[in-house]
Amino acid sequence: MTIGIDVAPHGRGTLDWVWLAGVPVAAVVWWIVYGQLIPLSEWVTSLVPVARDSHTGEAIAFFVYDVPKVLLLLTGIVFVTGVLRSWFSPEKTRAILAGRREIWGYPLAALLGVLTPFCSCSSVPLFIGFVSAGIPLGVTFSFLIAGPMVGPVGLGLLYGLVGWEVATLYLVFGFTIATIAGWILGRMNLERFLQDWVRELNAGPTAELPEERLTLADRVRVGLEQVREIVGKVWIWVLVGIGIGAAIHGYVPETVMLRIMGGDAWWSVPAAVVVGIPMYTNAAGVIPIVEALLGKGAALGTTLAFMMSVIALSLPEMIILKQVLKLRLIAIFVAVVSAGILATGFLFNAIL
What we know:
This protein is mainly α. 76% of the residues lie in helices and 0% in strands. The protein has one domain (19-351).
């Protein structure tokens, strides 16, 4: 798939400056809107005739906050990666990360995920941007796994709950899972299971013009075209995925999970993973559940396996990823990550 860009002829400099001046203005507007999402969600929820602390109130507030957040992140990240892609074609990007250099991509991507305070659905925009830029698929998976699983918010809250020793072990296990799972997925040559439009996006040059003939304004237009192409395909599934997640967030009772994971039976770890995958919340939202589970006597490994599955393998995340990955690749991704989470749960139960 190629993106047609007209060369800015002599005399169109004024129009180019309009394009360039619009970028910082749009960035300021983006930042202001993003910073007001929590007050906006609370205000919208207050207009609905339901109690704010009710199940319905929680679900509405969650939906109104998360949908614009993910769409804003998706738009901003796709635009930036689209502009960068005008300098670095998929072929160049893959060449830079090829051979021995690529092995460093997995831990670096996992480290970027650790430093990024995103939940699973918020990490998807970066994942889509990486994939569309031609970064190797396994490397992008390392980021997608590490981002929500061992991000700074979750680690900070976990530190306060269980102490630095367990929080550090959790960081090591989570980082290791992200790195190894990404490497395994990268070795499996799964690019053929990307959705067709993503593979077409990476199949040809970024633009129909030689890269050296693109002006900065042309590159801005490339970024906007990427936004139109990618966001236009996935926005409806962002609504569907987060809508399901909001319903789960508001209505799934903690007592069900406590009954399943309150014991120390061998099947409690896989049961925790199975229960966690359909749920959706961020690290800050799952920590109170973790605290309740531990208070009710759930084993630490079982509880951490549940936490990992909730924030690394959420159902809404899979629904959004379906627009980028084919079902077989999603199934392989879930299987590889689930194996790592199960190993973590059993090991924590064995050693602590």
